[in-house]
Amino acid sequence: MRSAEIRQKFLDYFVSQGHHKVPSSPLVPAQDPTLLFTNAGMVQFKDVFLGNESRSYSRAVSVQKCMRAGGKHNDLDQVGKTARHQTFFEMLGNFSFGDYFKRDAIRFAWQFLTEVLGLDPEILWVTVFETDDEAYELWQEVAGVRPERIVWMGEKDNFWSMGDTGPCGPSSEIFVDRGPEYACSDHCGLGLCDCDRIQEIWNLVFMQYNRDENGILTPLPKPSIDTGMGLERIAAYLQGVNSNFDTDLLRPLIRHVEHLSHVNYDPGPGGMPFRVIADHIRAITFLLAEGVSFSNSDRGYVMRRILRRAVRFGLLLGFHRPFLHELVPVVGEIMGDAYPEVLVGESLIQQMILDEEERFRVTLDSGMKVLESKLQSVPEGGVLPGEEAFLLYDTYGFPLDLTVDAAEERGITVDQTGFDAAMKEQRERARRARNRRQDAEQLPHLQPNEFVGYHQLTSHDVPVTHLYIG
Ligand code: ATP
Ligand code: MG
Ligand code: MG
Ligand code: MG
């Protein structure tokens, strides 16, 4: 089943159950400084859940563009290593705003999976939050799930929140068992390991609370439902492929990377560069299409980190010239029907990617030589000092995660505390220098009202490479 068909079936099913179809909101959340990127379908409904905003409908369904890089939900480091994580993905979600609650949420999810998509109930497992007896009973009663297929889980996995504050609640997750051939060990199983055999596909959040700045939970005016299913994950299962990267949503990108690099894709660990590049180019294309620009702070810096990470992985495939922009039309071919915004600015997006890649390539080769030599001086299993990673960041524009990736390939870890300390020290130095300059500006030759602030601040004081988002 093609992914376009899965999107459509999802929307159709929930519309037939009285849900209002709502388009995806942007990746950059509107007027929400607490959140770097939209990381779930519920983000655009946050105020509705909080009771601060009302809509003309109490049930909604959407296919939402999501980004999980930076902020509370950050999957950047996972990308390329697991079969199931990207930074950019699409989330299929149904929502109830004080309308139905656990019973119907469970009923709808089960019916959609087993009847509409035709999944065999025997491959499905579910989890419930450790105190949620109600959900435990309902899975048996409404969906006929056998108790041995229901696993109790703790707060880390089964209590969902969007960020440090906001709507939250216990959750139940649905998993598919892809079969013993995917087992990581003899003890592999749901709740016992985090491998790709039993894969989470859908999270049903029973939204009951709002968490405030002090971590205090207060009940929401009306309990609600928020669900999210990863399109790429369910597509992988339905298309009978081994990972999200083999679906019709990502595999054409990998194929194009193969074509450009003349290297064959290895679906195992060796194929990580292909997977990273395929994911990252989608993320960058969507962010640029929304008007995010490369910069040294906030979202623009996250995007810069993503691009630099892709470029570094490109080196492993032999790309010693800019190549990422050549993938943008492939993103357009795959995603343009569902998201026309990636087609509208296609040539401009390509140009911005090319410029940014060229800019990084000015320091890339020399930075890589320094990095290689530093890594060679550390034995396998050893630690690269934080100051060295900071030097690479400061002088060559190597984001920390890029250095961490390269180190990891040699079994070396990076001292992140030392990196942070070096960063802090750098900032202190910059601050002291700024104060000295400001003192100098008090000199008597200045006219009493002469204003020098903007020039001083913008042209000297904040060296562009010195900003960092952890
Ligand atoms: P996991 O435990 O596998 O990291 P999660 O519990 O963090 O997933 P949720 O926050 O519950 O994920 O998001 C709802 C659904 O979105 C998941 O069940 C999954 O299908 C999908 N999803 C989450 N993160 C990603 C990702 N990085 N890439 C692709 N799909 C994802
Ligand atoms: Mg996760
Ligand atoms: Mg999970
Ligand atoms: Mg989950």
Note down, in words, how this protein is organized:
- By secondary structure, this protein is of the alpha/beta class.
- The chain has three domains: 3-238, Bira Bifunctional Protein, Domain 2 (BirA Bifunctional Protein, domain 2), CATH 3.30.930.10; 250-363; 377-470, no CATH class.
- Helix content is 43%, strand content 16%.
- The strands form two sheets. Strands 1, 2, 3, 4, 5, 6, 7, 8 and 9 form a nine-stranded mixed β-sheet that branches. It has a two-stranded parallel ribbon with strand order 10-11.
- Helix 4 links the parallel strand 4 (124-129) and strand 5.
- Helix 7 crosses helix 8, helix 8 (272-289) runs antiparallel to helix 9 and helix 12 (346-376) packs antiparallel against helix 13 (386-396).
- The longest helix is centred in the C-terminal third of the chain and has 31 residues, at 346-376.
- It is globular.
- 40% of the residues are buried.
- The model is unreliable at 446-470 (pLDDT under 50).
- Adenosine-5'-triphosphate binds next to strand 3, strand 8, strand 9 and helix 6.
